[in-house]
């Protein structure tokens, strides 16, 4: 393990721990202003799907992209927690019988299996909603306009032209609504998976009130990293081990999904990842050594085993 890799791993683990602690606090039984009560079953279901697992890559990207500009870590962690709530909600809904019908997530029963479909739907709804409560809080940034820009960016990454739109395109490609519809895999990836990862990168630029050039650099980096992440995920679905993945392997093939692997082949997909790593590295050149941790993050995404 190189010094850079060791530092990356240390920082990733620390952000995961810090995000876990923050989410546990945000998703406690205690109400906040204007709330009436937090129903026990709902908050327990939200905590079940949000705590105790995951690499917390998305909050890590927020924290490290913000660190490039010297943004206070606690503010970046708060923005990262909002993003993680969106991610966790998406996993709950993605696992439902009407979507991917998955029984296993992070090595344990999915929420609808541990509880029931109705609880899972409402827990996902509540996580989506609390994300926008969190992202607008004063402690994220003193400038209300910065918080507005963050909120708008998160909404667009999560919604019609982002993750939710990507989900329905994915289902259409499986033939859920009639005949299979042609799939533009690159565009689908940019929406379903890449949009939230990209937000994790541009959030730092928004928090840091960056120059246009710096924002564009993190935008380019985020797009390359997001695509590399999806290709790695597609490769893992073919080559990975279910025990290491914490979910069934081969799920994409079983659902008849069109993926980067089905379009490019295994070797073509691996070459595409190498090209994307070079693109991510080039995008970060504007930051010099300040971009080293983000460079390591791109390598981690490309080489991950789960």
TrEMBL record:
InterPro entries: Isoprenoid_synthase_dom_sf, Polyprenyl_synt, Polyprenyl_synt_CS, Prenyl_diphosphate_synthase. Keywords: Isoprene biosynthesis, Magnesium, Metal-binding, Transferase. The keyword Transport does not apply. The keyword Phosphoprotein does not apply. The lineage of its organism: Bacteria, Pseudomonadati, Pseudomonadota, Alphaproteobacteria, Hyphomicrobiales. Its cofactor is Mg(2+). SUPFAM superfamilies: Terpenoid synthases (SSF48576). Belongs to the FPP/GGPP synthase family. Pfam families: polyprenyl_synt (PF00348). This is Polyprenyl synthetase family protein.
């Amino acid at each position: 393990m190189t010094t850079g890799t060791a530092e990356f791993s240390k920082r990733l683990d620390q952000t995961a721990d810090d995000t876990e602690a923050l989410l546990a606090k945000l998703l406690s039984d205690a109400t906040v202003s204007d709330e009436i009560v937090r129903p026990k079953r709902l908050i327990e279901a939200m905590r079940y799907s949000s705590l105790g697992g995951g690499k917390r890559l998305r909050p890590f990207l927020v924290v490290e992209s913000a660190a490039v500009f010297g943004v206070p870590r606690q503010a970046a962690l708060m923005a990262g927690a909002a993003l993680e709530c969106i991610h966790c909600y998406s996993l709950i809904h993605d696992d439902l019988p009407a979507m991917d019908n998955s029984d296993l997530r992070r090595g344990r029963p999915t929420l609808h299996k541990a509880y029931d479909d109705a609880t899972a739907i409402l827990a996902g709804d509540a996580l989506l909603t609390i994300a926008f409560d969190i992202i607008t809080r004063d402690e994220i940034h003193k400038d209300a306009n910065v918080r507005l820009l963050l909120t708008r960016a998160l909404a667009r990454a999560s919604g019609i032209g982002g993750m939710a739109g990507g989900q329905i395109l994915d289902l259409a490609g499986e033939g859920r609504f009639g005949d299979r519809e042609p799939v533009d895999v690159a565009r689908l990836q940019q929406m379903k998976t890449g949009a939230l990862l990209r937000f994790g990168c541009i959030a730092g630029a928004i928090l840091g009130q960056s120059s246009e050039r710096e924002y564009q650099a993190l935008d380019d980096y985020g797009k390359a990293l997001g695509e590399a992440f999806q290709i790695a995920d597609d490769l893992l679905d073919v080559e990975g081990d279910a025990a290491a993945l914490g979910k069934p392997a081969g799920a994409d093939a079983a659902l008849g999904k069109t993926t980067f692997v089905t379009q490019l082949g295994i070797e073509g997909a691996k070459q595409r990842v190498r090209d994307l790593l070079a693109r991510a590295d080039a995008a970060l050149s504007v930051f010099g050594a300040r971009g080293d941790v983000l460079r390591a993050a791109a390598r981690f995404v490309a080489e991950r085993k789960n």
